[in-house]
Amino acid sequence: MKNFEFCVITDILFGVGQEQHLPEKLKAYGKKILLTYGGGSIKKTGLYDRLKALLNDFEVFELGGIAPNPKIESVRAGAAICKQEGIDIILAVGGGSTIDCSKAIAAAAYYDGDAWDLLLDMSKITKALPVAVVLTIAATGSEMDSVAVISNTETNEKLPLYSPLLLPKIAVLNPENTYTVPPFQTASGAADIMSHVIENYFDREPAFVPDALNEGLLRTVITYTPVALEEPANYEARAQLMWASTLALNSLGSTGKNFAWSCHYIEHELSAFYDVTHGAGLAVLTPSWMRYILSEETVDKFCDYAANVWGFSREEDKFTLANRGIDATEAFFKRIGLPSTLTELGIDDTMFEIMAEKAVRVGFLQNAYVPLDEKDVLRILHMCL
Ligand code: NZQ
Ligand code: ZN
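Above: the input record for the complex with zinc ion. Below: its predicted structure, written as C-alpha cells.
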C-alpha cells in the first residue's frame, strides 16, 4: 500500500428534506448566490421552486441551460456573472454536468484570461469560489471530488480540471431528488459508478481495505440498479445508488493505489467527438478493455473480481473464472438497457486514430494498470464496433 493523503472536507447532508439546512449552511459564505442548473429537469420536478423559496433571504443570480458534457461557453457565461455581480458562492443543482461546470466557473471567476486556459494548464488555478451542490442523479461522484470535466466543441476536446480548491463545500444528497431520473440516465449513472470503482480496483498495488470497499460498492450497484429501474421511486434503491456514487470517487477507493485509469480517458474522446452519454460510452468500452488486458499477469485480479463481486466459484480454471466475470459485466450493462457496441452509439472508425492518440496523451495511458499505447487503444476501439 502506497503512502497517501486523504482530506475530503465536503459537508454531506444525506436524506429526505436535507435541503432545508441549506440556508443556514450557505449563510456562512455570504449573500450572493449563483444558482446553476441544466436543461430544465429541476423546473419540471419542482425542485427549482422549492429551492427558490428556501433561498428567499439571499440575492440569487442564475445560469441555466448547462448541457450534458458541459461546454466551455457555459463556464465563460457563469464566470462573467460571478465577476460582474460579486458572487459569494455557487449553488449547483443537478448532475455531474452542472456540478463540473460550476466548479470550472468557480475557478474561472478568479482568472483574468479565457476560461479554457485553465483546462490547458491547471497551474493557473490559484483561487476558486466555494461551490455547494444539490445532487439530482447518482453517477459521477462530482459532488465530493475535486474534478471537473469540460468540453470544447470547437476543438473536439473534453478535458479534466483538477484542484483541491474545487472540492464542493456542501453537498445535499436527497435520494428523492433522483426519482425522476429517466431509465437510460439511471443505467448510465450506474455504469459510471461501476467504472469509477473498476478503474480504482484494477491496479498493480495490493490494497485490501480499498478493494473490500470497492467490491462492496460494485455489489451495491449490481443489486440496486435493477430495483431503481423497476421502481423509480424506491427510496432504498435510490439511496444506495446515491451514496455508492459519492463513495466511488471521493478518493477512498483509490487510497494507497496508483490511480492508473484507462477506460475514462478513452471514453472522454468518444464524448468529445460524438457527445455521447458518458456512462453509456463506458458500458461499451469496459468489457472490451477487460478482455484486452486479461493475461497471465492480470488473471488473479480478474478472479477476485469474478468471485468477490459476481459470486462465481473459485474452483474453476483461472481464465474461465476471469472470463465469467467479464461476461457478467457485459451482460449486466445489457440487462439495464445500455449499448454494447460503438455502432449502437452511432460511432464508426473514422476518428479512431486521432481519438487513440489523444486518449494516450491526455490520460498518460503508458502508466495505466496495463500500459496502453495508441495501437492498443485502436485495437480496443475496434473490438467495440
Ligand atoms: O440537464 P437536465 O435538464 O437537468 O437533465 C439531465 C441531463 O439531461 C438529466 N437529469 C439529471 N437529474 C435529473 C435528470 N432528469 C430528470 N430528473 C432528474 N432528477 O440527466 C441528464 C444527464 O445529466 P448529467 O449531469 O450530464 O449526468 P451525469 O451526472 O452523468 O454527468 C455527466 C458529466 O460528468 C462528467 C462526465 O464526463 C459528463 O460530462 N464526469 C465528471 C466526473 C467528475 N467530476 O469527477 C467524473 C466522471 O467520470 C465524469 O467524467
Ligand atoms: Zn466517470
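Notes for the reader.
DSSP finds 15 helices and eight strands in the chain.
The first strand starts at residue 11 and ends at 14.
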